[in-house]
């Protein structure tokens, strides 16, 4: 809706012009003429107020579009070896340090591949309780690595991950892990996946399958190649200049530093000092840290960073939008909060009506 006038927006939404004028005044903007183009922030607010679901699409016109690293999310059933596989790929040991060896959050980091290419990986938890987190992981990613233990085979969260990937329209590369185990049966896993509708390469489809062992570090080169082939086919590119469009993959509260969000920039450049709206939260970016915890001035596409300076805790999956001023940030954030609250009320009411209806 950027650049639309009130008249045009009113026509689009089928609302009276005066209603929209009132909203614009309510959000603290001066209306000079209903024929003046609205800024993108005000347009978003007005659209939300009249109940439209809006999503910002940035134009790439006149800017440099350059290749970017793929963002790849590792998914699969609990304990099938997702974190171990990532550890093996980056040769560290996160799995051993985790409480009970169970991943409880979304981690993000860049792995430099032996071929010189780099890949941004997101780890996700396999535990049944973290379904929403996996759905968000699938939504911000280019490719899903579906990890299936060769001894255990296809399990409930394997299927769940498959459906998240399908819903988000993200291609899958299968990694059959734990192939070192005596009970490993990769052929059985392939048959199971095929039966679930995954079109594996072995069976004439286009889903690549690689047999690996995170512990014995076998098949890792093949996995790397498969991922780079998949990424190459997708021809991933991003605009570098201009305002950042980014997503939160993880957020936590630090006692000293306040709310911290791990974010991945999808396009543009996020710069220290900018005012941002993150989901329904807002803030001014006080510090940006790269994957190694080092302070940096800016974040470019596919680079996972930690940002500091938000006033509240955002949620994984929230979008990050750069705005001109603190005033705009506050305004947009409170507009979004109102919309979220309204949507939540509607949902609660719908559920209530459903439970009140006689079940025959
Ligand atoms: P969640 O994050 O809780 O879903 O688990 P995960 O999928 O990240 O599994 P994790 O990497 O924590 O590994 C679970 C267990 O499987 C650990 O005890 C690992 O040592 C073991 N494991 C992982 N990969 C392999 C493998 O290739 N071979 C063998 N034998 N064991 C493995
Ligand atoms: Mg894990």
From TrEMBL:
Domain Tr-type G: residue ranges? 67-237
Organism domain of life = Eukaryota
Signal peptide span per the entry?
none
Instruction: Give the similarity note.
Output: Belongs to the TRAFAC class translation factor GTPase superfamily. Classic translation factor GTPase family. IF-2 subfamily.
Q: Where in the cell is it found?
A: Mitochondrion
Query: Could you identify this protein by its name?
Result: Translation initiation factor IF-2, mitochondrial
Q: What does this protein do?
A: One of the essential components for the initiation of protein synthesis. Protects formylmethionyl-tRNA from spontaneous hydrolysis and promotes its binding to the 30S ribosomal subunits. Also involved in the hydrolysis of GTP during the formation of the 70S ribosomal complex.
